[in-house]
Every structure is written in C-alpha cells, then in structure tokens.
Amino acid sequence: MTETLALSERPAGAAGDEILRVEGLHTFIRTEGGVVRAVDDVSFTLRRGEILGVVGESGSGKSVTCRTLMGLMPSPPAWSIGDVRYAERPGRNLLEVSGAELQRLRGAHLSMIFQDPMSALNPVMRVGDQIEEAVAAHARLGGRERHRRAVALLDRVGIPAAERRMRGYPHEFSGGMRQRVLIAVAIASRPKVLFADEPTTALDVIIQDQILSLLLELQRDFGMSMVLVSHDLGVIAEMCDRIAVMYAGQIVELADATALLTAPRHPYTISLLRSLPDSERRSRYLPAIIGAPPQLIDIAPGCRFAPRCALAQTECQTWDTELIDVGDEHLVRCWRHDDARRPGAWPEQSFA
Amino acid sequence: MSTTINPGALLLEHFETRSRRRRGRLSRNATLIVGCTLLGLVIVASLAAPLLTNYSPETLDPLRPLAPPLSSGHLLGTDEFGRDIFARILYGGRIDLLVAFGATGVTLVVGTAIGLVSGYFGGWVDAVIMRIVDLFFAFPFFVLVIAIVAMLGPSIFNMFIAIWLTSWISYARITRGHTVVAKGREYVLAAKALGYRHSRVMLRHILPNVVSFVLIFAMVDAVGNVLLGAALGFLGLGAKPPSPEWGAMISDGQNYILSSWWLSTLPGIAIVIVGVGFSLLGDGLADLLRADD
C-alpha cells in the first residue's frame, strides 16, 4: 500500500458543508519537566461526509488533537484553549460544554476508534455485552431489540456467525476481529463524526486493508464525517479527501489530498513524500529526514522544522510562520513554499 | 537448508503443553477446593449445631467440671463449669464466622466503593479521601480498634463498629490504586468516548477489572478479623462471658492450661481451621483470577 501512493477514485467534491470547525486549538500538558505544548494552534474544518487525514510522526500531536476534541484528555494535567464549533450544537464551544452535555455528545455525535484493539475492549466483558451496551447508551431499548441490533452490527462489520460470537470474550478474537468489534461499538449510536486514531497501526497489512475498506464503506453508508489519524502516508493517501500534515504540534500543511500528494509545498511534506519507497525507481537508499522532532517544552521561536529543513535560512530560526493560503484552500506553514516546489532550490545532497 | 515441520510432533507438543496446563490448573484449584471445604465444614457445623449436639453451650453441669475429651458423654470434654466444649465450639463458630463475614463484608463493599470513587474522579476528592486514609493508617490498627471498643463498651456489635470504622482504609487504598491504573486503560477511555455515564464506566468497566485484587485481600483480611475477634474476646472486649466465643474460651481456659489443656487448645484449633480455610481460599482465588488474565 505504501509503495504506490495510488489515489483511490473517490468522488471529488462529495463533501458538503462544515460539521466541525476547530480554531486556534492549543493543548498543554503539565509534566515534571515543564509544560508540553502538545497541540499548538491547530485550526481546521471538517465537512459533512468527508474524510480528513491527519498524518505526522509520533508525538506530533495527532492523537492529542483527537482526544482533546473528544474531551478525553485528563485534566489536570492537561488543559486546552481554542474554539471548537459543532454544527449540530450551534453557538457553543465544545471545549466549554458541561460534563453532562459532553456525555450526550460522545458516542451519539462524536465517536472514536482507538489504535490498539488489544486494549480498547474490556477484557472481562463478553463482546456481545459491550456492543449491546454501546447500542443502548443513547437510546431506550428493550433487551430483545438491543440484542437484535447488536447482532446486526456485528454482522455489518463482517464478523461471521455473529450470533454465536456475541458470547465470546475479547481474548477469543484475533486482532483484526477485535478492531471490527471496536468499530461496531464506536458506530453503534450512529455518530456524525468519527475520529479514527491510527485504527490499523496494530494490524498486519492484509488486515489493514480490510479494515480500511470497511471503514470507508461504513463512512459512506452512514454519511459520517471522519478524521483519520495515521503515521502511514499510504493509508492516508488511499482514504482521505483532504490531508493535514502535523509536525511538532502544529499543522504545517493542509490541502486537498491530490494537491498535497502531487504538489506539496511544505519542505517537511516534500521530504516525507520523498522518503517513501518508490516501486518504479528502485534505489538502495531512501532519503531520510535527518534529526528528530523538537522537544515540545520551552519551544524556541521560529519554524519548528527549521533545524531539520534543507531549505532553512537564518530567518527561519527566528520567524514564527503563520499558515499561508496559497490558493484552492491549500494552507502551508512555510514562507519559502514557492521555492520548495522547485527542485533546483534544494541542496544537492538532500536528494541522495 | 529446508525446515520441515512435522505435524505429528507439533500436535504432540500441543497436547503436552495442554495437559501440563490442565494439571497446573487442577493443582491450583486444589487449594481452592480444600479451602472451600474447610470453610464449608465449619459453616455447616456451626449452623447445624443443634443437630450435632444435645448440649446447650451455656448449660452448666456442676457435677462434671473439667472432664477430659471422650469421657462421660462429652465428646470434647467440659470446661471449669461443666459446659460442653463441643457445643461451645459449634455455637461459638456462629459468632466468629459472623465476625469474619460481617466485618469483612461491610468493609469490603464500603472500602471498595470509596476507593473506586477516589481513584476514578481524582483531583481534590481523591486528595481528601487519601489523606483520611493516611490518617487512619498512621494509628496502630489494633490499638485503634481496642480504643473504639473500650469507648463504646465491650460487645460484639461494638466490635463490628470498630472494625468497620478502621479497616475500610485498606480496601479503599487497594481499589484506588488499581482504579487509577484501569482508568488509563484504553477500554475505559473507549467507554468514556461512547458517552457512558460515570456510574456505568465505574461499575461495569473498572470494577470488574479491579475486584479480584480486593477479593483476594478480603480473604486475608477475614482471617485477620477472626483473629481480631478472638483476640478481643481474649482481652474481654468482645463477646460477653456466657456466650461462647473462641477467643474468650481460650482466655478462660488459660488458668487451667497445665491441668486441662483442652479448654484452650480445642477452640484454638477451630480458629486455625477457619484461618487456614480462608488463606487457602484466598490463594486459590488469586491463582484462579490471575490465570484468567
């Protein structure tokens, strides 16, 4: 999957109006070493029926962004500021709603799939009970109806002999099957927005593909909007309508999937794409991005990526860069975005 | 080099490990079974006391004091007032088992609930509850119990109150610790992400994963409570004189220990049986629940 970066033929422009608008989201986490700026000024919109991909290295703030939006960051030590608008609750900032309101929103409006299917299911509860519980969380249902819906869900996510598997415990399921169960649990109350936090990272490639197709299918059938988080550009490229690239807690580039993959503007995105193996141009070397992401405590001013950037100039060390709109809703956090497009601007050895 | 897989050998290996595992499970269950049997016997014996002996535990027989075991119709002999020791041990079991289950059961439920709330909500709730727990831990447990009983006056019920007031702290602390761990698990996060109520997350998703640790401790604690009940009886702070309580019986018998050993020894053996029963039950339970992980 990773080797071709093939763009799937998804209907372009299927996306409708906004369902979620995030503006200036910051999440801070107090640690012994200082305050970590895990999410730093993240803004994006999610449209109805669209899949927004969020890609970045570990620790770039992808998961924290999702968890913050779900209200799942433990507070203390974490706290957030920003403005999160959800279309079904107009006039309210999701970061400020009451606990009871948040409870009503979760599951029924916003839901989440977690990375590790091994640990996201309760080990001492029957799978059927966990699904029935999710089915009944936001609706008044009788026992039979609850059971019927749970079996239907399990069947829908592709578990064979659903009726019988209802009685099983999570440890009796394989990783892929557990992820299917988790998906069933997450969509049980028909959420409008689904956050999928690295849903396939813990699975092998073949299962990955099955789970992704399942997600795509469900997303279309249910008309859900989805935020798909991954560090795997291949997965993101295959699934998403738009892509946000995160680095060190910030979105560095946000654009339509095709535009971002074919005409990237940010040096980080460009380096990232170049570091992928290419089946046509078999080379022994894969150009890596030298260095490591910065610590998110006591961040120095200037571009976060500058220390690793082949195009960095002295100004980059001192200038805080805003997201620049370069047209067609293509946002880039780099003032050299025009130079970055020209291969000639890159120093020779960066193409190794 | 080709590596061939011999299906026969694989199968054999499979069955060997399986039978080994089964044997392991059986021997583990053996402790559980023996523990249950011992406790069951004691419970049945003390409940069925009127069927097992014709003597009442408080009837005096002034003509035959200090009769040795197996003599003159008294299976385990009589004490200094001629009361039948067998009857007293059987009826005394009711009191001591009541202490074991009543005192432990209440503190188990209350302490676990407090620990669950403390660990789940965290913040100032947790801070306040844990400081109270620390406060209780700072006092020597036994002294605290004796002080409370002495204050309220010696009786079985006051002993219960003393135990309830003091031993929930261990349960609270154990539950709180495991709750904090469970709270960080993804399945709890997932439960929250689905919009479940706090009570549901706590009772259905955290408690079942926490309760095994508390149950195992409860078995140890039950032994402790039997011994505590006996010790308070021995000190004259538990059951009032005529009622048969094992600790009090040991205490009463100590004056005759050199001439009539059975007065103190036999109720002592009864305590040992209950203690061993609870310990084995706790061990067996611990192994069983650990095997499930």
Describe the structure.
The complex is a heterodimer of chains A (352) and B (293). Chain A has helices spanning 62-69, 99-105, 127-136, 143-156, 162-165, 175-186, 205-222, 233-239, 257-262, 267-274, 314-318, 337-341; strands at 18-31, 34-47, 51-56, 78-86, 110-113, 193-197, 225-230, 242-247, 250-256, 324-325, 331-332. With 352 residues, chain A is an alpha/beta fold. In chain A, the strands form 2 sheets. Chain A has an 8-stranded mixed β-sheet, with helices on both faces. In chain A, α3 (127-136) packs across α4 (143-156), α3 packs parallel to α6 (175-186) and α4 (143-156) packs across α6. The longest helix of chain A is centred in the middle third of the chain and has 18 residues, at 205-222. Chain A is globular. Mean pLDDT of chain A is 84; it is low at 1-15. With 293 residues, chain B is mainly α. Chain B has a single domain, classed as Orthogonal Bundle (MetI-like fold). Chain B has helices at residues 7-47, 49-52, 85-121, 123-138, 141-152, 156-183, 186-193, 198-234, 246-253, 262-292. In chain B, α1 (7-47) runs antiparallel to α10 (262-292) and α3 runs parallel beside α10 (262-292). Chain B starts with 6 loop residues before the first helix and ends with a helix. The chains are: A alpha/beta (352), B mainly alpha (293).
Main sheet: strands, sense, barrel of chain B = none
CATH superfamily of chain B: MetI-like
Helices and strands of chain B, in order, run as HHHHHHHHHH
CA-based shape of chain A:
globular
User: Mind summarizing the main beta sheet of chain A?
Assistant: 8 strands, mixed
Proportion of helical residues of chain A: 25-40%
